[in-house]
Amino acid sequence: MSAGEKAKAKTEQVVGKAVRKAAHAVGKETTAAKGAALEARGKAREIKEKSKDRFRH
Fold first, then answer.
1. Whether the Cβ atoms of residue 40 and residue 16 lie closer than 8 Å to each other
2. Coil, strand, or helix at residue 57?
């Protein structure tokens, strides 16, 4: 996994989680859903990169 892609995946996860929790705290469900989607996209990116690494080795 390239360092840049790994960092991008982790950043999406952390930012998504923060947005989701903050939006839930103030009752903004639409924004919470967007945060959850961002978090999920980060997790998917991480899984994709890990699978690429397995095939390379």
1. yes
2. coil
Alpha-carbon torsion (31, 16, 43, 9), positive or negative: positive
pLDDT digits (tens, 9 = 90+) for 29-43: 999 999 999 999 999
The whole-angstrom separation of Cα 36 and Cα 24 is 11
Q: Give 57's contacts (C-beta < 8 A, 6+ positions apart).
A: none
DSSP secondary structure of 14-31: HHHHHHHHHHHHHT-HHH
Sign of CA dihedral 28, 29, 30, 31: positive
pTM for this entry: 0.84
Predicted pLDDT of residue 1: 57
